[in-house]
Design a protein that fits this description.
By secondary structure, this protein is mainly α. The chain has a single domain (5-292), classed as Farnesyl Diphosphate Synthase (Orthogonal Bundle). The chain has helices at 5-21, 30-40, 47-57, 63-84, 101-104, 107-126, 134-148, 153-163, 170-179, 181-193, 201-228, 231-234, 240-243, 249-253, 255-272, 281-292; strands spanning 94-95, 98-99. A two-stranded antiparallel ribbon has the order 1-2. Helix 3 (47-57) packs parallel to helix 10 (181-193) and helix 9 packs across helix 10 (181-193). It is globular. The two termini are 21 Å apart.
Length: 295
Amino acid sequence: MRPVAELTQYQLRIENVLSNSIPDANIEPCLLHKAMRYSVLGGGKRIRPLLVYAAGECFQVDKKTLDAPAVAIECLHAYSLVHDDLPSMDDDDLRRGKATTHKAFDEATAILAGDALQTLAFELLSSPLHNISLKNQLKLINILSKTAGSLGMVGGQVIDLSSTGKILSEQQLENMHLHKTGALIRASVMMGANCSEQLTEQQQIALEQYAFCIGLAFQVQDDILDIESDTATLGKQQGADIAANKATYPAILGMQAAKAKVLNLYQSSYHALSCFGEEANLLREIADFIVKRNR
């Protein structure tokens, strides 16, 4: 397996294409563009765009072809974070080690910056794309649209807000996170794969299973780190979920069982990729990164 340095190279590429895709802060309306760039650039693990590149690499898709969907998924993710942090939602003051957008600017500007990032994602996907058929371009737009809506991320956020202070079963908690966190992670993998004309039904099923496992593992690990890590390491307020009385996997399962669940999902993600060879190593490295982060 290749060194983790390759992930770093992809992250550098992502930062570059993101910076080039978001309007410069000196273009009117300057305040809006400044808030958009503040919300997206200069932080984040970039898991979702990394997954776009990694899935595309399974089919030897050119990196340039993957740039637009990678930027689109990160813009949509950033929009969701800006809105999640608002006082009417999760009411967070810290994100990626710096003030949340509504704290750095103001609430109205944060809402509009999130709106603009969401529409930018679809503008990028609906513009002429490098070496992607119109049929597959339509698939990419459809995947992201379903992911962002009431049956995906937004629906998951509604479930999250309505579940605060309630005792959930493990199945109910899983359903919430498969809509919220899991939907974007699945979209990232499937958008990268659908940049290829070679995707088979067997490979699609395998990649969807992989995405299911790492999407859920990501959330369980987040719940664990919210308890065991610290604010400086997390880049957001440690213990925020407990303070907000949110349902978490350690609270429902216990810490030992939650850690066992992460390990089981991690192993299952590797098994899901058994129909692939070395071309899926970057996907395996991302699974490693998700499970072992901050340890």
